[in-house]
Design brief:
424 residues; alpha/beta; Alpha-Beta Plaits; 3 domains; binds NADP nicotinamide-adenine-dinucleotide phosphate; 4Fe4S_Fe_S_CS
Amino acid sequence: MNAPLPVDVLKQHLIDPEICIRCNTCEETCPVDAITHDSNNYVVDPDICNGCMACVPPCPTGSIDNWRLMVRSEAYSVQEQFGWEELPKEKALPAASPTSTPIEGADTSLDSPLSQAAETLAAAPAQASFTPAGASVPPWSAAHPYVNLYTHKAPMTATVVGNYRVTGADTESDIHHIVLDFGELPFPVLEGQSIGILPPGVDAQGRPHHARQYSLASPRDGERAGYNNLSLTVKRVTEDHGGAAAHGVCSNYLCDLAKNDTVQVIGPFGHTFLMPNHPRANLIMICTGTGSAPMRAMTERYRRRIDSGENGRLMLFFGARTERELPYFGPLMKLPRDFIDINLALSREPGQPKRYVQDLIRDRAAQVCDLLADRNTCIYVCGLKGMEVGVLDALRDVTMQSGQDWSILHEVLRREGRLHFETY
Ligand code: NAP
């Protein structure tokens, strides 16, 4: 008559609101739509999450990787999580803690179904049921990245030492190159990492704005070599994705900054979208618009050691509406042709056919396949979300044309940390 009732234990997936930079990567990645957000927080629905872990590697801050063993009926609801400013303290499960209140009817001895379930859940890695398009590990030779050195609670103050427009003044694309200096304080970064900017002021609910994430446009040794500074590529947002008028809080703040203004910075973030660090590694870089920021950082890293004999080959596919809307067009075109193979895809250049980066990958199939056949080649894709599928299709087409099996190569590229996506 006193047999224990079965107790349903859940390994609840939570996102740390103090570290999360609200970049939407987890919501984009979740294959079962378990992640959602309001104006305050990104949260995981305990009734939908299957613990597949697909969202964990892409998270640039690690805020996604929080788990609590909970009695299922007491799991934190989505509504509760929306209200959090920080994660609640861990609660011991009834069976694990002699001081906790036992669940009515539950056997709380060490061998109880409750403690066994808890142990199994704590020990077992969650089942992966989803394969993302890109790698969840960095290339084997990538340098060690530092992340989360500065947080929402303890940001770093940087000084603006440069802010100028890098697109034609007569075009709609108002893209700025912004240089931030950290003075004496350490801010170690790698190409491919990002930082968060805390815009001043409060949101519609009267809460401080959350950080906005921007990729570095400068290499690890600074925008100016040997200086403790870095650069960002920021497009002034004046409309939303649907074309309706919208005022980008942080992009307008950044684009309007003057020299000597100060900015609150958090980060750095990102541990996978990193460049290889061994000699003669080749890079295929595919980007649109401001997605060129990490490509500029990586290219500049190579340019600074152009005479070292260490560089592999660089191949760039860069999409923009017109030449005048392509950030850094002038400096880019001055780079030596034997240093970087530049392919510009212009979609709205008057008098020219509409071209996307994936069209040019097909045009250059032989050269792309040649690079893909070399295990020293890494591929980076950054920019508009919409290009992800097109780029994967183009890579599949060119590989198959050369008689290779894309599904096998794709898996190898992912496993070896040689194919990376950062799209929004
Ligand atoms: P954009 O000017 O809107 O577009 C750039 C080019 O991409 C245009 O030629 C556009 O052609 C083309 N394009 C549109 N859909 C495409 C598709 N499905 N496949 C291939 N090309 C396509 O770009 P943007 O406003 O600069 O946006 C760049 C993106 O990068 C943003 O989503 C941004 O969030 C992201 N990003 C920024 C940073 C940063 O640090 N600032 C870092 C990482 C990512 P159409 O003429 O057809 O429009």
